Amino acid sequence: MNASQPTNPRRSTWVQGKTTPTTAKLPPALPSDEINALRERVAEQLTRRARASEAAGEPPWTPERRRQEAQSLLAGVLQDEATAAITAGRAPRDPHADRTLTARVLDALFGMGGLQPLLDDPTIENINVNGCDVVHVRYADGRRARVAPVAASDGELVEMVRAVAARAGVEERRFDRGAPQLSVQLPDGSRLFAIMAVTARPSVSIRRHRHPTATLRDLLRLGTIDPGLEAFLTAAVRARRNIVVSGGMAAGKTTVLRALASAIAPSERLVTVEDAIELGLDADPRAHPDVVALQAREANIEGEGQITTADLVRSALRMSADRVIVGEVRGSEVISMCLAMSQGNDGSMATVHASSSAQVFLKLAAYAVQAAERLPLDATGLLVASAVHLVVHLESTPDGRRVVASIREVVGADGAQVISNELFRPGGDKRGRPHVPPSEDLLTALTAAGFDPQWLHSPERWWPR
Questions:
Q1: Which of 196, 253, 302, 414 is deepest in the core (most CB within 10 A)?
Q2: What GO molecular function annotations does the UniProt record carry, in alphabetical order (predicted)?
């Protein structure tokens, strides 16, 4: 592993594939040795103080109390350093430098170190680190920029990821040459993926979730859907239609899935299945008081103990769930998911990577071939057709906004081919508008769930033209 020093912290912005340096100046990097020394000093004092508190019979410290104590200790340390500097005839650090140093040390103790300032920026959507000093971000409005280094060396970057892994998620996750890949959920709900040993330099990718409690009304405000689609999708969820949300990378599938789930009645029992927990439906007990969030587990160092998402979907079928929600289908779990959807768990949902709504069925069939059941293509087509009712597909508009572009209704199967009608088709702006009327069965179910069929005959009430 190369311990590369930060080389070029200059910021640049990419526009339509071109790189244009901006004039924005990045804040000067603080010496990593100084931050680490203060972190270790405060951590040692914090441990002693916490043990003394426990020995005195006081209640265990909450995370907030622990941070407050650390901040108090750090203020004392910095005051001692300022006094020593004045005594020695040196100028102490100015207040701004002290505040910056305090933030960095607290980030190292409780946050994500050099990544924390990026995580604190609500306008940043994705963070990609290709070595400690090659850091790129993507903003919510589509802009891309290269920003300052997040660590002093690649070795420090790896240690930072290990520290995060040690305190994130529901189980310990290794990150070393024997386990060079790591996928965890961060405290703010973001998803971190890190890889080392099989790359020239360690790499970290963080996908932010700017809308952790999204609703369909939120999607309407964001411009992802229009009033007609809000009414249609709300009724589809309440009518217990099985829905697959599709789209490309970073298309907003998880956010839309979370928004669809917001239309589920609080009285229903939900079981979510994910490779790394992202949906966070269990974090909102008012909206979803009865939720079990299941997360896949990797094998241990002896190669044992692995629990796949397919295993978890099968487990969900034994947990009296009203609905099963699979965060992302990308393998053999498709069989278990379809069985869940077609065996009494109506209203279940999932996401899948696909470039169009029509391609979803090909992707599901390809995943089914990988399953241990080895279903023939004809049987796979019948299974998917009996399980999935609607496909909701996302695309990006020319100005970079994510929108619902297409909705397909599954009406049957002809051998291996799934037959569907495109109820909403994207126009030139990629926004989905009514194209083919729903089947009589679907329209009856939607109407019973509160959908006004007049929406389908009033184009002026949909997207602005």
A1: 253
A2: ATP hydrolysis activity
CATH 3.30.450.90 residue ranges of the chain are 15-19+118-207
Least confident of 29-43, 253-267, 271-285, 375-389: 29-43
Count of CB atoms within 10 A of residue 88's CB?
7
Q: Average pLDDT of 341-360?
A: 90
pLDDT top residue among 52 and 241: 241
Q: In what order do the strands lie in the sheet with 402-414?
A: 291-295, 270-274, 323-326, 349-353, 243-247, 390-396, 402-414, 417-426, 432-434
CB 115 within 8 A of CB 160: yes
Q: Where in the chain is the domain with CATH 3.40.50.300?
A: 216-461
160-209 tens-digit pLDDT: 888 887 766 555 567 888 889 888 878 777 888 999 999 999 999 998 87
Output the pLDDT for position 462. 67
CA–CA distance, 352 with 244 (Å, rounded to integer): 7
Q: Which helix (H) or strand (E) holds 45?
A: helix 32-55
Asked whether 183 and 275 are in contact (CB, 8 A), the reply is yes
Query: Are 356 and 247 spatial neighbours (Cβ–Cβ below 8 Å)?
Result: no
**DSSP result, 213-278:** T--HHHHHHHTSS-HHHHHHHHHHHHTT--EEEEESTTSSHHHHHHHHHTTS-TTS-EEEEESS--
- Please tell me what DSSP assigns to residue 412: E
Fold of 216-461: Rossmann fold (3.40.50)
Residues with Cβ within 8 Å of residue 253, at least 6 apart in sequence: 245, 246, 247, 328, 351, 394
Nearest to 108 by CA among 50, 46, 56: 46
pLDDT at residue 127, rounded to an integer: 95
Tokens 């010496």, residue located: 31
- Architecture label for domain 15-19+118-207: 2-Layer Sandwich (3.30)
End-to-end CA distance of the chain: 55
C-alpha angle with apex 221: 233 to 236, nearest 5 degrees?
5
Token pair 């933030």 is at which residue? 103
CA angle 129, 400, 464 (to 5 degrees): 160
77 contact partners, CB below 8 Å, separation of at least 6: 38, 41, 42
Residue 439 sits at the vertex; the CA angle it makes with 433 and 445, to the nearest 5 degrees, is: 95
- Rounded average pLDDT over 229-240: 96
